[in-house]
Amino acid sequence: MLPRLATGRKGGGVFKKILSGLSGANLEIFKVRTSVLEPGLYCSELTYYQFGMYIMFPIGWMYYFGTNLESRFSVPDFWPAPESTHKIPHEREELLAELERLKNQRLQRRARRLELEAQAKEDK
Fold first, then answer.
1. How would you class 32 by CB atoms within 10 Å of its CB: exposed for 0-12, middle for 13-18, buried for 19 or more?
2. Half-sphere exposure of residue 65, counting CA atoms within 13 Å on the CB side?
3. Which of 20-29, 70-79, 100-109 has the weakest average pLDDT?
4. Beta bridge partners of 4
5. Residue 36 — φ and ψ, nearest 5°?
6. Which residues contact residue 50 at a Cβ distance below 8 angstroms, ignoring those fewer than 6 apart?
7. In what helix (H) or strand (E) does residue 90 lie, and over which residues does it extend?
8. Mean pLDDT score of the chain, rounded to an integer?
9. Is the entire prediction scored with pTM above 0.85?
10. Average pLDDT score over residue span 14-28
11. Got the DSSP string for 11-54?
12. Residue 24 pLDDT class (50, 70, 90 cuts)
């Protein structure tokens, strides 16, 4: 039975149109039916089976593809060894040495660029 609206009358055509216009998940599969589908198998039993499959299939899929990923989907030697990568300095002396190295590198690139620009001016 539909609830009464604020006007005091039963929810008629307008309320039904609003409810029928709402879109969402199809909940028809969860309704329990009592008609006979096959001898000995009621639709309610089929609905329980359907519901179990709808719940268990995604869980089984996630379990199969979500466990033991390291051995199943890994590529050997994809990441470089820690010895071959750069080391991040943590101590003050290491930081100062790294800053000095970067400064020298930047000055060498600048000197090379200025040399190339001077050669380009001479060639013109």
1. exposed
2. 5
3. 20-29
4. 10
5. -85, 125
6. 29
7. none
8. 76
9. no
10. 57
11. --HHHHHHHHH------GGG----SEEETTEEHHHHHHHHHHHH
12. low
